[in-house]
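hey m, so remember when u said the C-alpha coordinates were messed up on ur end? i reran from scratch. heres the input so u can diff it against urs
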Amino acid sequence: MKIFIDTAPLIYLIEKHPKYSARLKKYFTELYIDGYEIITSVITYSEYGVKPKRDEKEELIKEFEEFLEKVGIPMLNVNKSHATRAYEMRAKYKFLKGMDGIQIGTAIEEGCDKFLTNDTKLEKIEELEIVLVDKLE
Protein backbone atom coordinates (compact mmCIF):
# COMPACT_ATOMS: atom_id res chain seq x y z
CA MET A 1 0.00 0.00 0.00
CA LYS A 2 1.12 3.54 -0.69
CA ILE A 3 0.43 6.94 0.89
CA PHE A 4 1.15 10.45 -0.38
CA ILE A 5 2.13 13.05 2.21
CA ASP A 6 0.92 16.60 1.55
CA THR A 7 2.87 19.64 2.73
CA ALA A 8 1.08 20.55 5.99
CA PRO A 9 1.76 17.26 7.81
CA LEU A 10 5.47 17.61 7.11
CA ILE A 11 5.45 21.20 8.34
CA TYR A 12 3.73 20.07 11.55
CA LEU A 13 6.20 17.25 12.07
CA ILE A 14 9.43 19.10 11.32
CA GLU A 15 8.46 22.30 13.08
CA LYS A 16 7.14 20.32 16.08
CA HIS A 17 3.57 21.62 16.04
CA PRO A 18 2.23 21.37 19.62
CA LYS A 19 -1.10 19.80 18.60
CA TYR A 20 -0.04 17.57 15.71
CA SER A 21 3.61 16.52 16.05
CA ALA A 22 3.07 13.58 18.44
CA ARG A 23 0.05 12.34 16.42
CA LEU A 24 2.10 12.38 13.25
CA LYS A 25 5.06 10.56 14.81
CA LYS A 26 2.68 7.83 15.94
CA TYR A 27 0.96 7.69 12.53
CA PHE A 28 4.26 7.51 10.61
CA THR A 29 5.41 4.71 12.91
CA GLU A 30 2.18 2.82 12.17
CA LEU A 31 2.65 3.35 8.43
CA TYR A 32 6.14 1.86 8.57
CA ILE A 33 5.00 -1.06 10.72
CA ASP A 34 2.15 -1.74 8.28
CA GLY A 35 4.59 -1.67 5.34
CA TYR A 36 3.31 1.44 3.58
CA GLU A 37 5.39 3.08 0.90
CA ILE A 38 5.45 6.80 1.69
CA ILE A 39 5.95 9.40 -1.04
CA THR A 40 5.66 13.14 -1.66
CA SER A 41 6.50 15.46 -4.56
CA VAL A 42 8.65 18.45 -5.46
CA ILE A 43 5.48 20.53 -5.02
CA THR A 44 5.69 19.76 -1.30
CA TYR A 45 9.29 21.00 -1.34
CA SER A 46 8.23 24.17 -3.14
CA GLU A 47 5.40 24.87 -0.69
CA TYR A 48 7.42 23.94 2.40
CA GLY A 49 10.26 26.34 1.63
CA VAL A 50 8.21 29.55 1.38
CA LYS A 51 7.81 30.46 5.06
CA PRO A 52 11.31 29.44 6.19
CA LYS A 53 12.80 31.48 3.33
CA ARG A 54 10.57 34.45 4.10
CA ASP A 55 11.40 34.24 7.83
CA GLU A 56 15.13 33.71 7.12
CA LYS A 57 15.02 30.29 8.82
CA GLU A 58 16.58 28.30 6.03
CA GLU A 59 17.82 25.72 8.54
CA LEU A 60 14.22 24.44 8.53
CA ILE A 61 14.54 23.69 4.82
CA LYS A 62 17.69 21.69 5.55
CA GLU A 63 15.85 19.83 8.35
CA PHE A 64 13.06 19.03 5.88
CA GLU A 65 15.51 17.64 3.32
CA GLU A 66 17.35 15.63 5.98
CA PHE A 67 14.09 14.21 7.35
CA LEU A 68 12.96 12.97 3.93
CA GLU A 69 16.35 11.40 3.30
CA LYS A 70 16.61 9.86 6.78
CA VAL A 71 13.22 8.17 6.65
CA GLY A 72 13.43 7.34 2.95
CA ILE A 73 10.55 9.39 1.57
CA PRO A 74 11.15 10.02 -2.13
CA MET A 75 10.32 13.46 -3.48
CA LEU A 76 8.93 12.77 -6.95
CA ASN A 77 9.23 15.05 -9.93
CA VAL A 78 5.94 15.97 -11.56
CA ASN A 79 5.47 14.66 -15.10
CA LYS A 80 2.90 14.96 -17.88
CA SER A 81 0.71 12.10 -16.62
CA HIS A 82 0.57 13.73 -13.18
CA ALA A 83 -0.33 17.07 -14.78
CA THR A 84 -2.98 15.43 -16.96
CA ARG A 85 -4.59 13.79 -13.94
CA ALA A 86 -4.36 17.15 -12.11
CA TYR A 87 -6.38 18.98 -14.75
CA GLU A 88 -8.89 16.13 -14.90
CA MET A 89 -9.34 16.34 -11.13
CA ARG A 90 -9.63 20.14 -11.24
CA ALA A 91 -12.29 19.84 -13.95
CA LYS A 92 -14.24 17.40 -11.77
CA TYR A 93 -13.72 19.18 -8.43
CA LYS A 94 -14.16 22.92 -8.99
CA PHE A 95 -12.80 23.78 -5.51
CA LEU A 96 -9.44 22.16 -6.31
CA LYS A 97 -6.68 24.75 -6.87
CA GLY A 98 -3.52 24.33 -8.93
CA MET A 99 -0.99 22.99 -6.44
CA ASP A 100 -3.53 20.79 -4.67
CA GLY A 101 -4.60 19.41 -8.04
CA ILE A 102 -1.03 18.51 -8.90
CA GLN A 103 -0.52 16.84 -5.50
CA ILE A 104 -3.74 14.81 -5.85
CA GLY A 105 -3.02 14.01 -9.50
CA THR A 106 0.47 12.80 -8.62
CA ALA A 107 -0.84 10.65 -5.77
CA ILE A 108 -3.44 9.00 -8.02
CA GLU A 109 -1.04 8.43 -10.91
CA GLU A 110 1.52 6.91 -8.52
CA GLY A 111 -1.07 4.41 -7.26
CA CYS A 112 -1.51 5.80 -3.76
CA ASP A 113 -4.28 4.41 -1.60
CA LYS A 114 -4.22 7.31 0.85
CA PHE A 115 -3.42 11.03 0.91
CA LEU A 116 -2.36 12.58 4.23
CA THR A 117 -3.27 16.25 4.58
CA ASN A 118 -5.06 18.63 6.89
CA ASP A 119 -7.07 20.32 4.15
CA THR A 120 -10.70 19.47 4.95
CA LYS A 121 -12.03 20.38 1.50
CA LEU A 122 -9.98 17.51 0.03
CA GLU A 123 -12.22 15.02 1.86
CA LYS A 124 -14.58 15.39 -1.11
CA ILE A 125 -12.07 13.63 -3.38
CA GLU A 126 -13.45 10.16 -4.16
CA GLU A 127 -10.48 8.67 -6.03
CA LEU A 128 -8.38 7.94 -2.95
CA GLU A 129 -8.79 7.91 0.82
CA ILE A 130 -8.13 11.31 2.36
CA VAL A 131 -6.63 11.14 5.86
CA LEU A 132 -6.82 14.35 7.91
CA VAL A 133 -4.16 15.04 10.51
CA ASP A 134 -6.80 16.64 12.69
CA LYS A 135 -8.64 13.31 12.88
CA LEU A 136 -5.60 11.22 13.82
CA GLU A 137 -5.50 9.95 17.39
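this time it looks ok to me. Residues 21-33 form the longest helix (13 residues). if urs says something different then somethings off w ur setup not the seq
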